[in-house]
């Protein structure tokens, strides 16, 4: 009996924690970005954090640094595409890594925002991809790629764009494994700064690596994504506060 009570209490407290963790949020209105911090205790950092993402990358305020080249060892490994109502996300199987400061981060998933979340000199791009990596302790590093519109269809997107689920809360197994490296620009120069998740719970301690060179996608490709989302899915830029952006 006592055992049952303890188990019951644990189940209850974890159910409460999960409900809070999963408090509903949106990109506009009463549950929009201005209110994320009030929607759940677990979302507090969205309101009070001092290292929040996204940010405006101001070319006049960046600091020249000897940033080491990014070591990206990616292989084709995207095996599922998910529409979670907030974004379209491709899940990646183990085996693709980013090495930063001699430290390995494994690519877990990548997803999209339209318009872009980060800005260059106050300017949004039509779309931005976030490649989310985690090290063995769960520390996150995100490689961000901007998309500008052009005449040529983006070959990286072509791999899975037709398979994106149109309805929220759907996952589709990809017929061919997606290679994320097809989404990267030729030039791997990047900006580096500390930030956060750009969605609740807005957890900080995320290393951001934003590619300086945008890649090209057609207006149609961007529109297909925006139409599936049905609303902009970008958090507004957050104050840099005491942070420095290195380039
Ligand atoms: Zn993102």
UniProtKB/TrEMBL annotation:
<dbReference type="InterPro" id="IPR036398">
    <property type="entry name" value="CA_dom_sf"/>
</dbReference>
<keyword id="KW-0456">Lyase</keyword>
<keyword id="KW-0732">Signal</keyword>
<comment type="similarity">
    <text>Belongs to the alpha-carbonic anhydrase family.</text>
</comment>
<dbReference type="InterPro" id="IPR041891">
    <property type="entry name" value="Alpha_CA_prokaryot-like"/>
</dbReference>
<dbReference type="InterPro" id="IPR001148">
    <property type="entry name" value="CA_dom"/>
</dbReference>
<keyword id="KW-0479">Metal-binding</keyword>
<feature type="signal peptide">
    <location>
        <begin position="1"/>
        <end position="19"/>
    </location>
</feature>
<keyword id="KW-0862">Zinc</keyword>
<dbReference type="GO" id="GO:0008270">
    <property type="term" value="F:zinc ion binding"/>
</dbReference>
<dbReference type="InterPro" id="IPR023561">
    <property type="entry name" value="Carbonic_anhydrase_a-class"/>
</dbReference>
<feature type="domain" description="Alpha-carbonic anhydrase">
    <location>
        <begin position="23"/>
        <end position="247"/>
    </location>
</feature>
<protein>
    <recommendedName>
        <fullName>carbonic anhydrase</fullName>
        <ecNumber>4.2.1.1</ecNumber>
    </recommendedName>
</protein>
<dbReference type="Pfam" id="PF00194">
    <property type="entry name" value="Carb_anhydrase"/>
</dbReference>
<dbReference type="GO" id="GO:0004089">
    <property type="term" value="F:carbonate dehydratase activity"/>
</dbReference>
């Amino acid at each position: 009996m006592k055992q049952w009570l303890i188990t019951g209490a644990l189940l209850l407290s974890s159910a409460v924690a999960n409900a809070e963790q999963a408090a509903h949020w949106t990109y506009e209105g009463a549950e929009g970005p201005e209110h994320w911090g009030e929607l759940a205790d677990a979302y507090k950092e969205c309101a009070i954090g001092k290292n929040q993402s996204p940010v405006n990358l101001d070319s006049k305020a960046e600091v020249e640094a000897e940033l080491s080249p990014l070591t990206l060892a990616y292989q084709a490994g995207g095996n599922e595409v998910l529409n979670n109502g907030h974004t379209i996300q491709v899940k990646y199987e183990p085996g693709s890594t980013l090495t930063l400061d001699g430290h390995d981060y494994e690519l877990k998933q990548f997803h999209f925002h339209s318009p872009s979340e980060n800005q260059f000199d106050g300017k949004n791009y039509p779309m931005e991809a976030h490649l989310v990596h985690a090290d063995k302790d769960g520390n996150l590093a995100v490689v961000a790629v901007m998309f500008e519109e052009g005449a040529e269809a983006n070959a990286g997107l072509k791999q899975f764009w037709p398979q994106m689920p149109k309805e929220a809360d759907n996952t589709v197994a990809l017929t061919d494994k997606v290679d994320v490296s097809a989404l990267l620009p030729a030039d791997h120069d990047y900006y580096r700064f500390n930030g956060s998740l750009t969605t609740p719970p807005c957890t900080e301690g995320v290393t951001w690596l934003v590619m300086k060179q945008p890649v090209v996608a057609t207006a149609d490709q961007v529109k297909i994504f925006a139409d599936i989302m049905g609303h902009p899915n970008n958090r507004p830029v957050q104050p840099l506060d005491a942070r420095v952006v290195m380039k």
